[in-house]
Amino acid sequence: QVQMVESGGASVQAGESLRLSCAGSGSILSIDVMGWFRQAPGKQRDFVANIKAGGGTHYLDSVKGRFTISRDVNKSTGYLQMNNLKPEDTAVYYCMMLISGQGPYWGQGTQVTVYS
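Above: the chain's sequence. Below: its structure in token form.
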């Protein structure tokens, strides 16, 4: 059984930074892909960033240069460093992992609110 728990969400002013964490537990032999998605009220869940087993990363255009995804493979933990936050970044952020060809596995989400 794989479980993931996100943390780090908060309410911040525009221009400030947050670091989200995603801790995986359970039968995790290898993480193929770790990603972050977000869902604003009344909208669909959208891709934000991902990092593959080889270290390659991809980002939503609107977060490039502001967000950085990383991971600690030894701890089965992923991170999303978010700088220069904007009100439009307000959403529930979800961690996703593809593990040993299985998944996706999702966390429960963490709320990020950015006010101007």
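DSSP finds no helices and eleven strands in the chain.
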